[in-house]
Design a protein that fits this description.
- This protein has a single domain, classed as HAD superfamily/HAD-like (Rossmann fold).
- The protein is built from 5 helices and 5 strands; from the N terminus they run E-H-H-E-H-E-H-E-H-E.
- Helix content is 39%, strand content 23%.
- The model has no long low-confidence stretch (mean pLDDT 92).
- The protein is of the alpha/beta class.
């Protein structure tokens, strides 16, 4: 199975638990990717942050002009990588992935920030 994890508000905010899930998936023989939608000001920053938390084989950034593009950018990247299961904190991302046959598992944010306001630009 090919599994994807969002970085911000998922791995970043739950490093021990999500890191454990990543390790479990890898031990089961699954391929694991981290896919993060970011604004142009964050280009090139995610991989070092992810690798400081947990070892993963592949980290991908998809760059939006507006955070509303994130669901479509993540869908395109998931399709490109063959991701079948994806963990994300945004309802709109989970809905878009699910519409296209990807099992999307929502990680509820601990704060009450909206999907769009939760993105780092």
């Amino acid at each position: 199975m090919i599994v994807g994890f969002d970085y911000w508000q998922v791995l970043s905010h739950h490093p021990e638990r999500i890191g454990h899930l990543i390790a479990v998936h890898q031990a089961a023989g699954d391929t694991v990717h981290v896919v993060s939608a970011i604004g142009a000001g964050r280009i090139g920053t995610v991989e070092a942050e992810v690798r400081a938390i947990t070892p993963v084989p592949a980290v991908h950034e998809v760059v939006f002009r507006d955070p509303r593009e994130a669901p479509y950018l993540k869908l395109a990247k998931c399709r490109e990588l063959g991701i079948e299961v994806f963990y994300d904190d945004r309802d709109d991302v989970c809905r878009e992935l699910a519409k296209h046959g990807i099992l999307a598992l929502r990680v509820t944010r601990q704060d009450a920030v909206s999907d769009l306001a939760a993105e780092r630009r």
